[in-house]
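User: Sequence in, structure out. Go.
Assistant: Echoing your sequence, followed by the structure tokens.
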Amino acid sequence: MHFGSSEEIGPTWDRWIQEWLPDSGWTIDPTRPNYEWYQNHNVPPELLLTFLCTPVVKIQLAWDD
């Protein structure tokens, strides 16, 4: 989730992709696009909420086979 102006979404995407995702056991599914789901229209920027949606797939480890 991102709270605030959509102009400041870039760093939130970067943190999600670079910091959380690598250790999660999941990886990005390159066959499907990312998207942003905007909530709260017509409110002050500090009250805006955006869901950042990344399609992912479970990482298969060698011993999971």
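User: And one key feature?
Assistant: Residues 31 and 55 are 9 Å apart (CA to CA).
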